[in-house]
Amino acid sequence: MYPGQHISLKPYNTFGIEAFARYFICFKSREEVQEIFDDIKELRVAERLVLGGGSNILLCGDFNGYVLKNEIGGIEAIHEDANSVMLKVGAGVPWHQLVLYAVDRDWGGIENLSLIPGSTGAAPMQNIGAYGTELKDVFHSLEAYHIGEKRIVTFDKKDCKFGYRESVFKHELKNQCVLLSVTLCLKKNPEFNIAYGAIQQELEKMKVESLSVKNISDAVIRIRSSKLPDPAKIGNAGSFFKNPSVNAGQFHDLKKQYPDLVGYENTDGSYKLAAGWLIEACGWKGYRNGDAGCYPLQALVLVNYGNASGKELLSLSEEIKASVIHKFSVMLEREVNVI
Ligand code: EPU
C-alpha cells in the first residue's frame, strides 16, 4: 500500500482550507487498516491524522506526516426484533447518509441529528449532539483498531466516557485508535424528542399533525439550513466553541447585569451559557476580516468565505475568546480540533 505525497487537503476539510499532507492514504476496510500499519513501519511513531468528513478540524499549516482517510462503508442490521434494530455502520459512512437510511425505514433515534456534517466514525469521537439528542442516547458499541496494541478492540458506552462533546478518544486515547465501525440501537416505535422549542415551532410552521421520524428530520433540516451555513457553499466546521458552563453564583450575577443572557441549568446545578449569545453580545456576529468571519446568522460558527488561512481563523477565534473573557469573565473552549 503506497501513500500519495504532497496531497492538497482542501477537499477533505469542511472549512475549505488549503494545506498539504506530506503523505496521504485512503482505507476502505478493516483489513486495509491493519495492512497499512503492518506495511509502513514508521506509521506507528509518525505524526498521524485520521480523517473522517474533516468537519471538525482547523488546519493551521501543512501536515508533515501521514493523513489517513477513513472510507470504510457499509450499513448492516445485525439484530432486529419487533421494537428495535441494531445497525452496524462503517466509520467512513457520511453521518447524514446514515440518518436518511434510518428515516427512510422509519427507525427512530437519530432524526434530531439530521444534517450534521462529518462521518459516522467522527460521531462518537465528540459525542455529536443537537436539538436535545446526543449520539450516546442511541450508541451501543464501536470497534477500533488500537494502534499501540496492534489489534481490534470493542468499546461499549462506558468505555467511551461520553460527555458534552467529549469522549475518551479526545483524551486518554487521542490519536491511539482508528475507528472502524459504530453500532447504534434504533427504535421502531420511538418516543420523539421535541422538547427543543425550535423543533416545535418548525413543526407548527410545517402544519404537521402527527409526529413521525420523517417529519422531525425534515423540521431539523429546515432549522439547520436556515441558520447554519452549508459547508459546500461557505467553509465552516459548525460550532467553533462549546457552550461554556459557569457556577450558579456567576450565572445569577451575569443575569442581573444582562437580563437577556441565555443559559440552562445543568443537572449538577451549574449553568450552561449559549456561547453564540455571548459572542453576539461582544459585537462579533457578522464580523469579517478578509475571508475569515463570524457567521451573520449564528455567531458560534466561524466561516471561511474563500481563501482564509487556518491561522487567520484561529487568530479571529482568539480575539473572540479574549473579548468574551473581558466582558463576561467566561472562558470559551474550542469544539473544533486545531491541527
Ligand atoms: N444565540 C444568540 N446569538 C447567536 C447564536 C445563538 O443569541 O448568534 C442564542 C439563541 O438565541 C439561542 C441560544 O443562543 O437562544 C442557543 O442557540 P442555538 O439553538 O442555535 O444553539 P447553540 O447552543 O448555539 C448548539 C450546538 C449545535 C446544535 C444546536 C442545536 C454546541 C457547541 N452547539 O448550538 O451543534 O446544532 O445547539 O441543538 O453545543 C455543533 O456542535 O457543531 C453544532 C452546530
Which residues sit in consecutive blocks of at least 5 with pLDDT less than 50? none
CATH hierarchy, class of the largest domain: Alpha Beta
Provide the succession of SSEs.
Answer: EEHEEEEEHHEEEEHEHHEEHEEHEEEHE
Distinct ligands, ions and cofactors found in the model: uridine-diphosphate-2(N-acetylglucosaminyl) butyric acid
Predict the CATH topology of the largest domain.
Answer: Uridine Diphospho-n-acetylenolpyruvylglucosamine Reductase, domain 3
Q: What structural class do the secondary elements suggest?
A: alpha+beta
The overall pLDDT, averaged over residues, is 96
Number of helices: 9
Report Rg: 20 Å
- What oligomeric state do these chains adopt? single chain
Q: For the record, give the distance between the C-alpha atoms at the N and C termini, rounded to a whole number.
A: 25 Å
The biggest beta sheet reads: 5 strands, antiparallel
Shape: globular
Q: Strands of the biggest beta sheet: in what spatial order?
A: 6-7-12-10-11
